[in-house]
Design a protein that fits this description.
single chain, 6 helices, 136 residues, three-stranded antiparallel sheet, alpha+beta
Length: 136
């Protein structure tokens, strides 16, 4: 059974500012996504490195368009879209999606930061956006 937003989860999000969902993808889906990402030459070619505060590197690929890729299918899935619409209380749209390419215990850290300054300059006048992180 896939995750479906319920009032308790929505309340937790509005209280804590985040929501952790265990098993958004099942084991088979997560395994297929990892296998795909590790063998995707286009993704690996598009990825670029970004240094963290300690000088270590993380690699990531950012896509602004929703095409017909398996990655976009996850972004467009009802599990993601319905949950985000329920949490934000309005229709949502895709800003971008990214894939962090990092092996366990090696590579740089992803340093969380506030993006509202970028969002505002790109026409998003209110900070009513959300991020979804799926760990594989």
């Amino acid at each position: 059974m896939f995750f479906k937003l319920n009032p308790e989860s929505a309340d937790r999000f509005h209280t804590d500012g985040f929501l952790i969902v265990q098993g958004l993808l099942d084991i088979e889906e997560a395994g297929l996504l990892m296998k795909l990402a590790k063998s995707d030459r286009v993704l690996l070619k598009q990825a670029y490195s970004k240094r963290d505060a300690s000088g270590s590197e993380s690699r990531l690929a950012v896509r602004n368009q929703l095409g017909a890729s398996p990655y976009a299918a996850i972004v467009k899935s009802r599990r993601i879209v319905d949950t985000m619409q329920g949490l934000l209380g309005d229709e949502v749209y895709h800003y971008h999606h990214k894939m962090m390419l990092k092996e366990p215990l090696v590579g740089g850290a992803w340093e969380w930061h506030q993006d509202y300054g970028y969002w505002y300059n790109n026409g998003c006048l209110y900070p009513d956006m959300a991020s979804c992180l799926i760990a594989i």
